[in-house]
Design goal:
The strands form 2 sheets. This protein has a 7-stranded mixed sheet with strand order 4-5-9-8-7-6-10, with no helix packed on it. A 3-stranded antiparallel sheet has the order 1-2-3, with no helix packed on it. It starts with 7 loop residues before the first helix and ends with a strand. Helix content is 4%, strand content 15%. Among the domains are: 8-69; 211-262, no CATH class; 266-297, no CATH class; 302-417, no CATH class. It is mainly beta and 421 residues long. It is built from 2 helices and 10 strands.
Length: 421
């Protein structure tokens, strides 16, 4: 046995055995441990033996060696001795901090501030401007958000328009990049341009007046704005009830369903509604030629049964022509037509007009339809007196024309009933 490598305990045991004698053989042994030293300095052992034959001999053997048994010496475990002692995670026997076991006998981990060669790209004890918290170099698009490196976001790609740009900047309304659910993004908060501050395309009804495109925008029709974002105007074809329009057909025709005032056509509005009304005199009075149901007032008999005076020589413009006289003359209702004109003059014509010496004219205004048949005096102008002679008469407004109840000129000749245009 190589006693230099033998443990101390074994040497002690051998010394005890050597001290024991064998009674049956008569042989006795005497052993003396000559000297012992600490494991670090080595040890030596001396042994003397004698036999019953009286022969004595002395055998001396020396064993030296090293040990790390702290139990026998009381020394504490040492990190770096290559042995994993209690309390140590590892012990690779070196002071290198770039491998998997640190010089503090702790396993290398991301975040310990030491770069584990071949495993970590960097390690600054946490996130920094040059290292991510997973101990990789900060790269936009790696899926790790590193605010210290200037990243506001990192969605693991380099695509803009998905909420995180290709430079890891958050895409939000107003950043000038239309992304996510944004319809537009012009980078400003101006609500009068094509993109609102909500990143929505400007449109009629959003409540903002789009400059150069909209005249107004009240989020729908109002008293001042149509629902197509144009200013209210009767006749524009946009019906705006809020502005008081009952209708708007886009034209100025007062004979259709909607008047030029954007009011629904109705009997009594003064406009004849084509296809629905016979007349419309703007009132609801009956007997005035147009009844309150916008039907023409039934004509009285004199407006239907009358004689006509149509000869041109009766016209006030006929001067110094052949002389005639309304005597004899049948008393009845007459209507002036044709060359004679349409009605009697209401001012005195000069003498020698109307084909006679003393022209006859009606003293008084023509009546309205509502006034019915009214009495008037027919005067004859002669000898400087515009009413030198006279005859009683009646006149009625038949709506589109007048009729006159005239009698025979009783005072003599020559006098005639004149017509004018």
């Amino acid at each position: 046995m190589d006693f230099r490598r033998a443990p101390l305990q074994l040497l002690c045991a051998l010394a005890l055995i050597a001290a024991c004698g064998d009674d049956s053989s008569g042989t006795s042994f005497t052993s003396t441990a000559a000297s012992m030293t600490s494991p670090t300095s080595g040890f030596s052992t001396s042994s003397t033996s004698s036999t019953s034959g009286g022969t004595e001999g002395e055998t001396t053997e020396a064993i030296t060696g090293s040990t790390t048994d702290p139990g026998s010496t009381g020394a504490a475990p040492v990190c770096g001795d290559g042995a994993v002692d209690p309390g140590e995670e590892c012990d690779d026997g070196n002071a290198e901090n770039t491998d998997e076991c640190l010089d503090s006998c702790v396993l290398a981990t991301c975040g310990d501030g030491l770069v584990w060669a071949g495993t970590e790209e960097c390690d600054e004890g946490g996130r920094s401007a040059t290292c991510d918290d997973d101990c990789t170099l900060p790269v936009c698009g790696d899926g790790v958000v590193n605010a210290s490196a200037g990243e506001a976001c990192d969605d693991g790609n380099n695509v803009s328009g998905d909420g995180c740009s290709d430079v890891c900047a958050s895409e939000s309304c107003g950043d000038g990049v239309a992304a996510g659910g944004e319809e537009c993004d012009d980078g400003n908060d101006d609500n009068t341009d094509a993109c609102t501050d909500m990143c929505l395309n400007a449109s009629c009804g959003d409540g903002y007046v789009w400059a150069g495109t909209e005249a107004c925008d009240d989020k729908g029709e109002s008293a001042t704005c149509d629902d197509d974002c144009t200013a209210v105007e009767c006749g524009d074809g946009v019906h705006n009830m809020s502005a008081g329009e009952a209708c708007d057909d886009g034209n100025a025709d007062d004979t259709d369903d909607c008047t030029s005032a954007c009011l629904a056509a109705a009997c009594g509005d003064g406009f004849v509604w084509a296809g629905n009304e016979e007349c419309d005199d703007g009132n609801n009075t009956n007997g005035d030629g147009c009844e309150n149901d916008c039907k023409i007032t039934p004509l009285p008999p004199e407006c239907i049964n009358y004689a006509t005076l149509s000869d041109a020589f009766r016209n006030v413009n006929n001067a110094n022509g052949p002389v005639g006289c309304d005597n004899p003359f049948t008393t009845q209702w007459y209507r002036f037509t044709g060359g004679a004109g349409t009605q009697m003059p209401t001012t005195a014509p000069p003498t020698s007009r109307c084909g006679t010496h003393a022209p006859g004219w009606m003293n008084g205004a023509h009546p309205t339809v509502q006034q019915g048949a009214v009495a008037r005096t027919i005067c004859f102008n002669w000898s400087g007196n515009t009413c030198n002679w006279s005859e009683p008469a009646m006149v009625r407004n038949c709506g589109d024309f007048y009729v006159y109840y005239l009698k025979n000129v009783s005072w003599g000749c020559n006098g005639r009933y004149c017509g004018s245009n």
